[in-house]
Write a structure and sequence with these properties.
- By secondary structure, the protein is mainly α.
- Among the domains are: 120 residues, Four Helix Bundle (Hemerythrin (Met), subunit A) (Up-down Bundle), CATH 1.20.120; 125 residues.
- The chain is built from 26 helices and no strands.
Length: 513
C-alpha cells in the first residue's frame, strides 16, 4: 500500500509539472519537481540584481541554458520524451528570465538584438510545442519522424542563443571601452577597467571579444597618460588577461605595446606594483605555451632593456609575489630567445637569483623556485655558466631542489615541485660536463640522492619526467666519478640503455595483486 501511494504521488507531481503554463513557470523561477536523480539539472538562480553583479548573473544564466541544451540533446538521443519536454519547458523559462533580467539593466539595445530576442523566444515556444506533441502519441514511427524535426529546432535554438549571447557580450565590452576612452573621470575609468578585468576572467572567448573591440588599444592609451598613473597596475593586470589570446597579441603589436612596457619597466619613477604588473604582461606574452608569439618582432628590439629591468626588479623585490612575476617573465624570455641567456650572464643574474633563493621571504614557494631553476637550466647551456654556479653555491641549491616536496598536497603545488626536481636534475646533467661542477656535485652527495629518486617512485611523486632527468644526470656524474656508484646501481641505472633503465625503475613499485 505504501509503495502504491508513493508511486501515485510521484506520478501526480510529474503530470502537474507538464500541465503548468510556461508563464507560471517563469514567475516561479523554473522550479519543477523531478522524479529522476538529476539534481544537477535543477539549476536555479535568484534574479535579484542586488545580490549579484548584472553581468555575472547574465553569464551564469547563459551557462545554465547552454548546459540544459546539451542535456536535452542527450535525453533526446535516448528518446526520453517526458524528460525532453520538462527540460525544454525549463530552458524556455530560463531564456525568458534571462531576457527579462537583461532588459531591466540600464543600457540601450540595438535593433539587431531585439530581432534576435524575438527569434529566440519564438523558436523556444515552437520547441516546447514540438516536445509536448511527442507526449501525446505513442506511435514509434511518428516519434521517429518528429525526432529529426526536434533535433533541427534544438540546433536552431542553440544557434540563436549563441548569437544573442555573443551580441550581448560585445555590447557590454563596447560600453565599457567607450567609458574608458571618453571619460576623463578617474573614478569612472577605474570602475570601467575593473569591470573589463572581471569580464576577461570569464575565459578566452570573452578576451577575444574585448580584443576585437579595441580593448588592448584603449588600455595602452591609459598607460601612456600620466594623469592615470595610479591606475597603471590595474590596467596592466587587465592587459595581461586579454593578451592570453592571439587577437590580443596582434593588437599589442599594432600599438607598440612592447615599447610602452619597456618604458614603464625602465622608468624608476613608477611604483613597484606597476613594474610587477608590467612584468606580468611580459610573462604572459612570452609564455612558451603560446603558439603565436613569433610575430613579436619588436620584442627583440627592446629585449636588452626589458631583461635588465626585470633583473633589477628581482634584485630589489620587496615580496615573494613581485619576485615571482619578475622571475617568471625572465624564465619565459630564456625560452623565447637564446640571446637572453647571454644578456643575463653579463648582468650577473645568476648571482642575483642564487642570492634571492637564500632569502625565504622572497623565494618562498615552489612556484618561485620553479622559475629560478628554469632560468638556471636554460643558462646552463653556456660554458661560462659553470664558474658562476660554483661561485654562488649553485650546486648546493640544485641539490636542495632535488628534495623539493609539497607541504600542502595541493595538485598545482605538487606539479610545481615535480618541475623543480626535474629541472634541477636537468641543470646538473648539463653543468656536470664541467669536471669542477661534477666534483662539487659528487662531494655534496648528489649521486645517492639521484639514485633514490630513480629507485623510489614516491620520492619523485611517480613522475616519469623526473625519472628521465635523474637518470640522465646520474649517467653524466657516473662518467666523471665512476667510484661513487655501487656495482648494482651501475649495472641497473647506468650501463643499460636509458630506456631499459627507465622501464626497470618504473616497474619498481610494490605490487599488491
Amino acid at each position: 500500500m505504501h509503495l502504491i501511494q508513493v508511486d501515485s504521488v510521484q506520478r501526480w507531481m510529474e503530470d502537474l509539472k507538464l500541465m503548468t503554463d510556461c508563464e507560471c513557470m517563469c514567475i516561479l523561477q523554473s522550479k519543477p519537481i523531478s522524479i529522476e536523480k538529476d539534481e544537477q539539472s535543477e539549476l536555479i538562480l535568484s534574479s535579484q540584481s542586488s545580490t549579484c553583479d548584472n553581468l555575472q548573473l547574465l553569464l551564469k544564466r547563459a551557462w545554465i541554458i547552454s548546459t540544459e541544451l546539451t542535456r536535452i540533446a542527450q535525453k533526446l538521443e535516448k528518446s526520453r520524451w517526458q524528460r525532453v519536454h520538462s527540460m525544454t519547458v525549463r530552458v524556455n523559462c530560463h531564456v525568458r528570465s534571462m531576457l527579462n533580467e537583461y532588459n531591466t539593466f540600464p543600457r540601450s539595445s540595438s535593433e539587431e538584438m531585439h530581432q534576435l530576442e524575438k527569434l529566440l523566444i519564438d523558436k523556444c515556444s515552437e520547441f516546447t510545442a514540438f516536445t509536448e506533441r511527442c507526449l501525446q502519441t505513442e506511435d514509434e514511427e511518428i516519434l521517429k519522424s518528429m525526432k529529426s524535426c526536434i533535433n533541427e529546432t534544438l540546433t536552431t535554438v542553440a544557434q540563436y542563443f549563441g548569437q544573442l549571447i555573443e551580441l550581448v557580450l560585445t555590447h557590454e565590452a563596447q560600453n565599457l571601452l567607450r567609458q574608458i576612452e571618453l571619460s576623463g573621470s578617474l573614478y569612472v575609468t577605474e570602475s570601467a577597467i575593473s569591470s573589463l578585468f572581471s569580464l576577461a576572467q570569464e575565459g578566452a572567448h570573452l578576451c577575444r571579444i574585448i580584443a576585437k573591440e579595441g580593448g588592448v588599444v584603449a588600455l595602452f592609451k591609459i598607460c601612456r597618460q600620466d594623469c592615470f598613473r595610479c591606475l597603471y597596475p590595474q590596467t596592466l593586470r587587465t592587459l595581461a588577461s586579454i593578451c592570453c589570446v592571439e587577437e590580443g597579441m596582434h593588437q599589442l603589436e599594432k600599438v607598440d605595446g612592447i615599447l610602452c612596457l619597456a618604458d614603464i619597466l625602465t622608468d624608476n619613477s613608477h611604483s613597484e606594483a606597476t613594474h610587477a604588473e608590467a612584468a606580468a604582461v611580459i610573462a604572459q606574452i612570452t609564455s612558451p605555451h603560446l603558439t603565436f608569439t613569433q610575430h613579436l618582432s619588436s620584442f627583440l628590439e627592446n629585449m636588452e632593456e626589458i631583461v635588465t629591468a626585470l633583473v633589477k626588479l628581482c634584485q630589489e623585490a620587496s615580496s615573494g609575489e613581485v619576485f615571482l612575476l619578475a622571475s617568471a617573465a625572465l624564465a619565459n624570455i630564456t625560452f623565447f630567445d637564446t640571446m637572453a641567456c647571454e644578456i643575463l650572464l653579463q648582468l650577473n643574474a645568476m648571482k642575483i637569483l642564487l642570492a634571492a633563493c637564500s632569502d625565504k621571504r622572497i623565494v618562498d614557494t615552489p612556484y618561485s623556485r620553479d622559475q629560478v631553476v628554469t632560468i638556471l637550466a636554460n643558462m646552463s647551456v653556456l660554458d661560462q655558466c659553470a664558474s658562476e654556479i660554483i661561485q654562488g653555491n649553485g650546486v648546493q641549491l640544485l641539490m636542495e631542489m632535488l628534495f623539493e616536496k609539497s607541504s600542502s598536497g595541493n595538485p598545482s603545488e605538487v606539479a610545481a615541485c615535480e618541475r623543480v626536481q626535474q629541472k634541477s636534475a636537468v641543470t646538473l646533467a648539463r653543468l656536470s660536463r664541467d669536471p669542477e661542477v661534477a666534483d662539487v656535485a659528487v662531494k655534496l652527495s648528489c649521486i645517492p640522492r639521484l639514485i633514490k629518486l630513480c629507485r623510489s617512485p614516491t620520492e619523485r611523486n611517480n613522475s616519469d619526467s623526473v625519472l628521465v632527468a635523474c637518470l640522465a644526470a646520474l649517467r653524466r656524474l657516473a662518467v666523471m666519478s665512476p667510484d661513487g656508484l655501487e656495482d648494482s646501481d651501475f649495472q641497473q641505472l647506468v650501463k643499460p640503455r636509458l630506456v631499459d633503465s627507465f622501464l626497470l625503475c618504473t616497474n619498481m613499485e610494490e605490487s599488491f595483486v
